[in-house]
Amino acid sequence: MSIVMQLQDVAESTRLGPLSGEVRAGEILHLVGPNGAGKSTLLARMAGMTSGKGSIQFAGQPLEAWPATKLALHRAYLSQQQTPPFAMPVWHYLTLHQHDKTRTELLNDVAGRWLLMTNSDVAPINFPAVNGNAYVLLRWCCKSHHKPIPQANCCFLMSR
């Protein structure tokens, strides 16, 4: 397997590092740790959203050398903290992502995925009450129902 990304002494003040390692094509990594351990910070660095100490190579080039538009064609980044600035029931949010309003089974499938992953009751929850992890999973569910992703190929970042 070819190396997709190399990290060398990646650090972020007291939150992260220094960390070195590599990611190979087709590899699935799980980042596990307590709140504040630097998981989201590391992912933001690996996605090229932030800069700091150390170096990251992506596809053989320094990550900072990639134009944002080109980088966006090769990776996806879903921020944990980007919550909507409004109070909306989760169920309503899900309907916004349903392209074919006549296919309610898709909406039920997405809601079902979210319920299973968060152990939540979807109906009464409004967005200000949805924590960061649950919101990341909700957005992932909304995106993935357009092109289903097999469970075996999924990796979730959860800080508990």
How would you describe this structure in keywords?
ATP hydrolysis activity; 160 residues; disordered C terminus; 5 helices; alpha+beta; hydrolase; 4-stranded antiparallel beta sheet; 29% helix; ATP binding
List the topology elements.
Layout: E1 3-12, E2 16-24, H1 39-46, E3 53-58, E4 61-62, H2 68-71, H3 90-96, H4 104-118, H5 132-144
Antiparallel strand pairs: 1-2, 1-3, 3-4
Structural class: alpha+beta
Mean of all residue-level pLDDT scores: 74
Form type? elongated
Q: Class of the largest domain in CATH?
A: Alpha Beta
Spatial strand arrangement across the major sheet: 2-1-3-4
CATH architecture of the largest domain: 3-Layer(aba) Sandwich
Task: Tell me the domain tally.
Answer: 2
Q: Tell me about the biggest sheet?
A: 4 strands, antiparallel
CATH topology of the largest domain: Rossmann fold
How many helix segments? 5
Q: Percentage of helical residues?
A: 25-40%
Give the terminus-to-terminus CA distance: 32 Å
H and E order: EEHEEHHHH
Q: Would you identify the regions where 5 or more consecutive residues have pLDDT less than 50?
A: 147-160
Radius of gyration: 17 Å
Task: Tally the beta strands.
Answer: 4
Share of residues in strands: 15-25%
CATH superfamily caption of the largest domain: P-loop containing nucleotide triphosphate hydrolases
